[in-house]
Design brief:
By secondary structure, this protein is of the alpha/beta class. Helices cover 34% and strands 22% of the residues. The protein has eleven helices and 13 strands. It has helices spanning 42-50, 96-103, 160-173, 187-198, 202-209, 214-220, 226-249, 261-265, 274-280, 286-291, 302-312; strands at 6-11, 15-22, 25-33, 58-63, 72-74, 81-83, 91-95, 112-116, 126-131, 135-141, 144-148, 256-259, 294-297.
Length: 327
Protein backbone atom coordinates (compact mmCIF):
# COMPACT_ATOMS: atom_id res chain seq x y z
CA UNK A 1 0.00 0.00 0.00
CA UNK A 2 1.20 3.50 -0.86
CA UNK A 3 2.23 5.06 2.47
CA UNK A 4 3.86 8.32 1.43
CA UNK A 5 1.87 11.55 1.06
CA UNK A 6 1.07 12.42 -2.55
CA UNK A 7 -0.69 15.41 -4.10
CA UNK A 8 -3.31 14.21 -6.60
CA UNK A 9 -5.18 16.58 -8.90
CA UNK A 10 -7.95 16.13 -11.45
CA UNK A 11 -8.69 19.15 -13.67
CA UNK A 12 -11.76 19.03 -15.89
CA UNK A 13 -13.54 21.55 -18.04
CA UNK A 14 -15.44 23.15 -15.14
CA UNK A 15 -13.64 22.28 -11.89
CA UNK A 16 -10.34 21.33 -10.30
CA UNK A 17 -10.32 18.68 -7.58
CA UNK A 18 -7.32 18.03 -5.35
CA UNK A 19 -6.54 15.74 -2.42
CA UNK A 20 -3.68 14.36 -0.37
CA UNK A 21 -3.37 10.62 -0.96
CA UNK A 22 -1.94 8.65 1.96
CA UNK A 23 -2.24 4.97 2.91
CA UNK A 24 -4.78 4.35 0.17
CA UNK A 25 -7.13 7.12 1.30
CA UNK A 26 -7.85 10.66 0.13
CA UNK A 27 -7.55 13.49 2.66
CA UNK A 28 -7.90 17.29 2.61
CA UNK A 29 -10.08 17.25 -0.50
CA UNK A 30 -10.93 20.54 -2.11
CA UNK A 31 -12.74 21.61 -5.26
CA UNK A 32 -12.53 24.93 -7.10
CA UNK A 33 -14.08 26.24 -10.32
CA UNK A 34 -11.56 26.42 -13.16
CA UNK A 35 -12.86 29.88 -14.09
CA UNK A 36 -11.43 31.21 -10.81
CA UNK A 37 -7.86 30.11 -11.54
CA UNK A 38 -6.85 33.01 -13.80
CA UNK A 39 -5.47 30.78 -16.54
CA UNK A 40 -2.90 28.93 -14.39
CA UNK A 41 -3.75 26.52 -11.56
CA UNK A 42 -0.17 26.27 -10.24
CA UNK A 43 -0.30 29.25 -7.79
CA UNK A 44 -3.56 27.97 -6.25
CA UNK A 45 -2.14 24.44 -5.97
CA UNK A 46 1.04 25.72 -4.28
CA UNK A 47 -1.05 27.57 -1.70
CA UNK A 48 -3.16 24.49 -1.07
CA UNK A 49 -0.04 22.36 -0.63
CA UNK A 50 1.59 24.82 1.76
CA UNK A 51 -1.45 24.69 4.05
CA UNK A 52 -1.18 20.92 4.53
CA UNK A 53 0.04 19.41 7.82
CA UNK A 54 2.16 16.93 5.86
CA UNK A 55 4.25 17.67 2.78
CA UNK A 56 3.54 15.63 -0.37
CA UNK A 57 6.64 13.96 -1.78
CA UNK A 58 5.31 13.87 -5.35
CA UNK A 59 2.30 14.87 -7.41
CA UNK A 60 0.24 13.73 -10.37
CA UNK A 61 -2.05 16.07 -12.26
CA UNK A 62 -4.73 14.61 -14.52
CA UNK A 63 -5.99 17.08 -17.11
CA UNK A 64 -8.84 17.08 -19.63
CA UNK A 65 -6.78 17.35 -22.77
CA UNK A 66 -4.02 15.62 -24.73
CA UNK A 67 -0.67 15.45 -22.95
CA UNK A 68 1.79 15.64 -25.83
CA UNK A 69 4.46 17.51 -23.84
CA UNK A 70 5.47 15.92 -20.50
CA UNK A 71 6.50 19.34 -19.15
CA UNK A 72 3.38 21.42 -19.76
CA UNK A 73 -0.20 21.07 -20.87
CA UNK A 74 -3.14 23.13 -22.07
CA UNK A 75 -6.70 22.02 -21.33
CA UNK A 76 -9.15 21.49 -24.17
CA UNK A 77 -12.35 22.93 -22.62
CA UNK A 78 -10.91 25.34 -20.06
CA UNK A 79 -8.59 28.28 -20.59
CA UNK A 80 -5.84 26.86 -18.44
CA UNK A 81 -2.17 26.15 -19.03
CA UNK A 82 -0.02 24.30 -16.50
CA UNK A 83 3.75 23.82 -16.28
CA UNK A 84 4.93 20.83 -14.28
CA UNK A 85 7.91 22.75 -12.89
CA UNK A 86 5.61 25.41 -11.44
CA UNK A 87 4.22 22.90 -8.93
CA UNK A 88 7.43 22.91 -6.90
CA UNK A 89 7.78 19.13 -6.37
CA UNK A 90 8.35 16.01 -8.50
CA UNK A 91 5.28 15.67 -10.67
CA UNK A 92 3.78 13.92 -13.66
CA UNK A 93 1.12 15.22 -16.04
CA UNK A 94 -1.35 12.76 -17.54
CA UNK A 95 -4.62 12.81 -19.43
CA UNK A 96 -7.68 12.62 -17.17
CA UNK A 97 -8.98 9.46 -18.86
CA UNK A 98 -5.55 7.88 -18.42
CA UNK A 99 -5.92 8.55 -14.69
CA UNK A 100 -9.51 7.28 -14.62
CA UNK A 101 -8.48 4.06 -16.38
CA UNK A 102 -5.71 3.51 -13.81
CA UNK A 103 -8.16 4.11 -10.97
CA UNK A 104 -11.06 1.90 -12.05
CA UNK A 105 -10.20 -1.04 -9.83
CA UNK A 106 -9.79 1.16 -6.75
CA UNK A 107 -13.47 2.17 -6.94
CA UNK A 108 -15.49 0.44 -4.18
CA UNK A 109 -18.14 -1.99 -5.50
CA UNK A 110 -20.92 0.35 -4.39
CA UNK A 111 -19.54 2.96 -6.77
CA UNK A 112 -20.01 0.83 -9.91
CA UNK A 113 -23.30 0.01 -11.66
CA UNK A 114 -23.49 -2.87 -14.14
CA UNK A 115 -25.67 -1.51 -16.95
CA UNK A 116 -25.76 -4.44 -19.34
CA UNK A 117 -23.91 -7.22 -21.13
CA UNK A 118 -21.98 -10.01 -19.47
CA UNK A 119 -19.61 -9.99 -16.53
CA UNK A 120 -16.33 -8.14 -17.16
CA UNK A 121 -13.34 -10.33 -17.94
CA UNK A 122 -10.57 -9.22 -15.52
CA UNK A 123 -7.96 -10.00 -18.18
CA UNK A 124 -9.85 -8.42 -21.07
CA UNK A 125 -9.38 -5.02 -22.73
CA UNK A 126 -11.24 -2.13 -21.11
CA UNK A 127 -12.69 0.90 -22.87
CA UNK A 128 -13.22 4.07 -20.83
CA UNK A 129 -15.50 6.92 -21.91
CA UNK A 130 -15.36 10.10 -19.86
CA UNK A 131 -18.70 11.87 -20.15
CA UNK A 132 -18.26 15.31 -18.65
CA UNK A 133 -17.91 18.73 -20.19
CA UNK A 134 -16.18 16.88 -23.02
CA UNK A 135 -15.97 13.25 -24.14
CA UNK A 136 -12.65 11.70 -23.19
CA UNK A 137 -11.50 8.22 -24.16
CA UNK A 138 -8.87 5.69 -23.12
CA UNK A 139 -8.18 1.98 -23.47
CA UNK A 140 -6.61 -0.21 -20.80
CA UNK A 141 -5.07 -3.67 -21.19
CA UNK A 142 -3.61 -4.95 -17.94
CA UNK A 143 -1.47 -2.13 -16.58
CA UNK A 144 -1.03 -0.45 -19.97
CA UNK A 145 -3.26 2.56 -20.67
CA UNK A 146 -3.56 4.26 -24.06
CA UNK A 147 -5.32 7.63 -23.78
CA UNK A 148 -6.69 9.18 -26.93
CA UNK A 149 -8.85 11.92 -28.37
CA UNK A 150 -11.48 9.75 -30.01
CA UNK A 151 -14.20 12.08 -28.75
CA UNK A 152 -13.05 14.46 -31.49
CA UNK A 153 -13.49 11.85 -34.21
CA UNK A 154 -16.13 12.67 -36.82
CA UNK A 155 -19.73 12.09 -35.74
CA UNK A 156 -21.42 9.48 -37.96
CA UNK A 157 -25.20 9.91 -38.28
CA UNK A 158 -27.16 6.66 -38.53
CA UNK A 159 -30.68 7.82 -39.52
CA UNK A 160 -32.56 10.79 -40.97
CA UNK A 161 -33.07 12.42 -37.58
CA UNK A 162 -29.35 12.28 -36.79
CA UNK A 163 -28.51 13.54 -40.27
CA UNK A 164 -30.75 16.55 -39.62
CA UNK A 165 -28.96 17.05 -36.30
CA UNK A 166 -25.56 16.80 -37.98
CA UNK A 167 -26.56 19.48 -40.50
CA UNK A 168 -27.86 21.68 -37.67
CA UNK A 169 -24.59 21.31 -35.75
CA UNK A 170 -22.46 21.74 -38.87
CA UNK A 171 -24.04 25.17 -39.36
CA UNK A 172 -22.77 26.05 -35.88
CA UNK A 173 -19.41 24.27 -35.72
CA UNK A 174 -18.38 23.29 -39.22
CA UNK A 175 -16.75 20.01 -38.20
CA UNK A 176 -19.06 17.89 -36.02
CA UNK A 177 -17.44 15.42 -33.62
CA UNK A 178 -18.77 12.97 -31.01
CA UNK A 179 -18.22 15.52 -28.25
CA UNK A 180 -20.74 17.78 -30.00
CA UNK A 181 -23.46 15.15 -29.50
CA UNK A 182 -22.51 13.04 -26.47
CA UNK A 183 -21.19 15.29 -23.69
CA UNK A 184 -22.37 17.85 -21.19
CA UNK A 185 -21.33 20.69 -23.46
CA UNK A 186 -23.46 19.17 -26.25
CA UNK A 187 -26.78 19.48 -24.43
CA UNK A 188 -27.46 23.20 -25.06
CA UNK A 189 -27.16 22.72 -28.84
CA UNK A 190 -29.16 19.48 -28.70
CA UNK A 191 -31.89 21.35 -26.83
CA UNK A 192 -31.83 24.11 -29.45
CA UNK A 193 -32.30 21.45 -32.12
CA UNK A 194 -35.18 19.99 -30.09
CA UNK A 195 -36.79 23.43 -29.96
CA UNK A 196 -36.41 23.78 -33.71
CA UNK A 197 -38.34 20.52 -34.13
CA UNK A 198 -40.95 20.87 -31.36
CA UNK A 199 -40.99 24.53 -30.38
CA UNK A 200 -40.64 25.94 -26.86
CA UNK A 201 -43.26 24.97 -24.29
CA UNK A 202 -44.22 27.36 -21.46
CA UNK A 203 -42.45 25.11 -18.93
CA UNK A 204 -39.23 25.17 -20.95
CA UNK A 205 -39.48 28.92 -21.51
CA UNK A 206 -39.98 29.49 -17.78
CA UNK A 207 -36.97 27.35 -16.83
CA UNK A 208 -34.67 29.03 -19.32
CA UNK A 209 -35.93 32.52 -18.39
CA UNK A 210 -35.06 31.74 -14.76
CA UNK A 211 -31.43 31.39 -15.81
CA UNK A 212 -31.16 27.65 -15.36
CA UNK A 213 -28.39 26.07 -17.49
CA UNK A 214 -29.75 24.50 -20.64
CA UNK A 215 -28.07 21.16 -19.87
CA UNK A 216 -29.73 20.96 -16.45
CA UNK A 217 -33.09 21.97 -17.92
CA UNK A 218 -32.90 19.29 -20.61
CA UNK A 219 -32.41 16.56 -18.00
CA UNK A 220 -34.97 17.94 -15.55
CA UNK A 221 -37.77 18.30 -18.11
CA UNK A 222 -37.00 15.28 -20.29
CA UNK A 223 -40.04 13.38 -19.00
CA UNK A 224 -42.56 16.09 -19.90
CA UNK A 225 -41.15 18.42 -22.55
CA UNK A 226 -40.79 17.18 -26.16
CA UNK A 227 -37.75 19.32 -27.00
CA UNK A 228 -35.92 18.16 -23.87
CA UNK A 229 -36.94 14.56 -24.49
CA UNK A 230 -35.55 14.72 -28.01
CA UNK A 231 -32.29 16.32 -26.84
CA UNK A 232 -31.76 13.60 -24.23
CA UNK A 233 -32.71 10.77 -26.60
CA UNK A 234 -30.28 12.02 -29.23
CA UNK A 235 -27.50 12.30 -26.66
CA UNK A 236 -28.11 8.82 -25.25
CA UNK A 237 -28.25 7.32 -28.72
CA UNK A 238 -25.00 9.00 -29.79
CA UNK A 239 -23.32 7.97 -26.55
CA UNK A 240 -24.47 4.39 -27.04
CA UNK A 241 -23.22 4.36 -30.62
CA UNK A 242 -19.76 5.61 -29.71
CA UNK A 243 -19.56 3.34 -26.65
CA UNK A 244 -20.46 0.41 -28.89
CA UNK A 245 -17.86 1.53 -31.43
CA UNK A 246 -15.26 1.44 -28.66
CA UNK A 247 -16.48 -1.94 -27.47
CA UNK A 248 -16.12 -3.57 -30.90
CA UNK A 249 -12.99 -1.67 -31.87
CA UNK A 250 -11.08 -3.09 -28.90
CA UNK A 251 -13.21 -6.18 -28.23
CA UNK A 252 -13.65 -4.77 -24.73
CA UNK A 253 -14.49 -7.95 -22.82
CA UNK A 254 -13.26 -6.13 -19.71
CA UNK A 255 -16.13 -3.71 -20.23
CA UNK A 256 -16.89 -0.30 -21.59
CA UNK A 257 -16.83 1.92 -18.52
CA UNK A 258 -18.58 5.29 -18.37
CA UNK A 259 -17.01 7.80 -15.98
CA UNK A 260 -17.49 11.51 -15.33
CA UNK A 261 -19.97 13.81 -13.67
CA UNK A 262 -22.40 13.94 -16.58
CA UNK A 263 -22.35 10.14 -16.91
CA UNK A 264 -23.37 9.86 -13.25
CA UNK A 265 -26.23 12.31 -13.78
CA UNK A 266 -27.45 10.19 -16.69
CA UNK A 267 -27.87 7.19 -14.37
CA UNK A 268 -31.72 7.31 -14.35
CA UNK A 269 -31.77 7.18 -18.16
CA UNK A 270 -29.23 4.40 -18.76
CA UNK A 271 -31.18 1.33 -17.67
CA UNK A 272 -32.61 0.71 -21.13
CA UNK A 273 -33.81 2.48 -24.23
CA UNK A 274 -31.69 4.54 -26.62
CA UNK A 275 -28.25 3.94 -25.07
CA UNK A 276 -28.41 0.15 -25.16
CA UNK A 277 -30.27 -0.01 -28.48
CA UNK A 278 -27.54 2.05 -30.13
CA UNK A 279 -24.75 0.14 -28.38
CA UNK A 280 -26.07 -3.19 -29.67
CA UNK A 281 -27.17 -2.16 -33.20
CA UNK A 282 -24.21 -3.71 -35.02
CA UNK A 283 -25.72 -5.70 -37.87
CA UNK A 284 -24.18 -9.19 -37.96
CA UNK A 285 -22.10 -8.32 -34.87
CA UNK A 286 -25.11 -7.32 -32.76
CA UNK A 287 -24.98 -10.50 -30.68
CA UNK A 288 -21.31 -9.93 -29.92
CA UNK A 289 -21.94 -6.30 -28.97
CA UNK A 290 -24.88 -7.26 -26.75
CA UNK A 291 -22.58 -9.48 -24.67
CA UNK A 292 -19.98 -6.78 -24.03
CA UNK A 293 -20.18 -5.45 -20.44
CA UNK A 294 -21.31 -1.87 -19.87
CA UNK A 295 -20.52 -0.27 -16.52
CA UNK A 296 -21.15 3.13 -14.97
CA UNK A 297 -18.79 4.59 -12.35
CA UNK A 298 -20.59 6.78 -9.81
CA UNK A 299 -17.50 7.54 -7.72
CA UNK A 300 -16.12 10.87 -8.90
CA UNK A 301 -12.79 10.15 -7.18
CA UNK A 302 -11.81 7.59 -9.83
CA UNK A 303 -9.40 10.03 -11.49
CA UNK A 304 -7.78 10.85 -8.14
CA UNK A 305 -7.28 7.15 -7.43
CA UNK A 306 -5.50 6.78 -10.73
CA UNK A 307 -3.45 9.93 -10.19
CA UNK A 308 -2.25 8.46 -6.89
CA UNK A 309 -0.97 5.39 -8.71
CA UNK A 310 0.89 7.61 -11.19
CA UNK A 311 2.36 9.82 -8.44
CA UNK A 312 3.49 6.81 -6.40
CA UNK A 313 5.94 5.95 -9.18
CA UNK A 314 7.75 9.25 -8.46
CA UNK A 315 7.89 8.83 -4.67
CA UNK A 316 11.29 8.25 -3.05
CA UNK A 317 12.08 4.65 -2.09
CA UNK A 318 11.12 3.35 1.36
CA UNK A 319 13.55 4.51 4.02
CA UNK A 320 14.34 7.80 2.29
CA UNK A 321 13.90 10.98 4.31
CA UNK A 322 10.27 12.02 4.34
CA UNK A 323 9.34 15.69 4.74
CA UNK A 324 6.98 16.67 7.56
CA UNK A 325 5.98 20.15 6.45
CA UNK A 326 5.26 21.63 3.02
CA UNK A 327 8.10 23.37 1.31
Amino acid sequence: MQNQPLMVVDIGGTSLRVALSLDGRLHHRQRVDTDSLAGDPAPWLRRWRQALPLAPVAAAVAVAGPVTDPEQVELTNARLRLSKDALGLPAVLLNDLHAAALGLHQVPPAGVVHLGGGAPDPAGPIGVLGVGTGLGQAVRQGEVVLPGEGGHGAFAATDDEQRALRDFLAARHGYVDWEHVASGSALPALLAFGEQVHGRTPALAQALAAGQPAAAVALALADRDPACALALRLMLSALGTEAGNMGLRHLATGGVWLVGGVAARLRPFLDGGPFHAAFEARGRFSALAAGLPRLLVLDDDVGLYGAARAAAALAPPPGATRPTAPG
